[in-house]
Design goal:
CATH topology of the largest domain: Rossmann fold
Distance between the termini: 36 Å
Number of helices: 10
Strand order of the largest sheet: 1-4-3-2-5-6
CATH architecture of the largest domain: 3-Layer(aba) Sandwich
Helix content: 25-40%
Number of domains: 2
Number of strands: 12
CATH class of the largest domain: Alpha Beta
Length: 326
Amino acid sequence: MQRWRGVESAPSGWGRCVVTIGVFDGVHRGHQQTIGLAVEHARRAGLPAVVLTFDPHPLEVLRPGSHPPMLTGPRLKAELLEALGVDVMCVLPFTQQFSRLTPDEFVHDVLVERLHTRMVVVGENFRYGAGGSGDVAGLAAAGRRFGFTVENAPLQGSEHTTWSSTYVRSCVDAGDMGAAAAALGRDHRIDGVIVRGDQRGRQIGYPTANLEPLPWSAVPADGIYAGRLVRPNGALLMAAISIGTNPTFAGRERRVEAYVVDAEPGLDLYGEHAGVTFAARLRETLRFDAVEPLVEQMARDVEQTRALLADGRPARPGQAGSSVAG
C-alpha cells in the first residue's frame, strides 16, 4: 500500500481511482463496510482504491484542546487499511486554511484536479467543506458536474447501537472491552514505546513492560486486563495488564504496565515500539495494605489471564503491529 502525505504526493500521470473519505479512527466495522465497498468497486473497475484521511483530527484544529482519544495511531490505521485491500492511504494535513475550503473547492481541488476520481464511496452521514456544509446529496450533484459517481454506504451497527468511533471510545473509557471488540472486529489496541519504570514489579517477581502510549491514545479505564503485548515483528505475548497509579505504593502517575505471562528468560523490551491489546477486564484496581496480598492477587490475575487466552485462539486483525522492562 502506498502512503501519501497530501494529494500533492500523487505521482505524475496518476489516472482515475475510487476514493473513500473520513477520519476512520478505529477502522471499526462500520468503517470496514464503507472501505470494503470502495475496494470492491475499485477492483471491478481495475482502478486503485484510495482512502483520504486527516491529520491531526479535525476537532483539534476547529476547537483546539478538544482532540478526542484516538483508537488507532498512524501505523495501526495504515496496517488495518492495507489489510482491507486499500491501495493508497493519503493523509491530508488538516489546517485552518484547509478547514475553510468550501464544498465545491474541496471537490474541485482534491477529488477532481488531483485524484481524477471516478467514484466516491462515503457513509450516509458524511459531511465535508467549511462548517460541514456539504453532504452526500451535494457531493452527488458535484459528481454529475465533474464526471464521478457517488455511492452512499448505510450506517452499520448491532441491534441496539450504531457503530461509531464515539461509541467505541465510550466502551474503552468504561473498560468494556467486549463491547469495544464487537464494534471494532478485534481487540482494542494502544501503541507506544516501552520505557523504564520504578522496577517494583521486578522486585516482587512480576517484572512489567511499561508502555508510554502515543499522544491522545484511548487508554481503557483503570483496572487489570487480560490481553497481549505486540512486538514490532508481530509476535503476540500473552500479558496481564495493569492500568492505574499503583495505589499500593502511593503512586500518582497513571501507567500502562504489561506482565508477560510465561516470558522467556532474558526477554528485553526496553525502547521497543510496541502495542498492547485488551481482551477482557479482570477487575478494578485495588489498594493493598501490604505487598504479600498484592502478590497473591497478581498470581490469581495471571492464572485468569492464562485461562482466558491460552486456548490458542487466533489473533484478531490489527493485533500484529519482558528481562521485561519494569
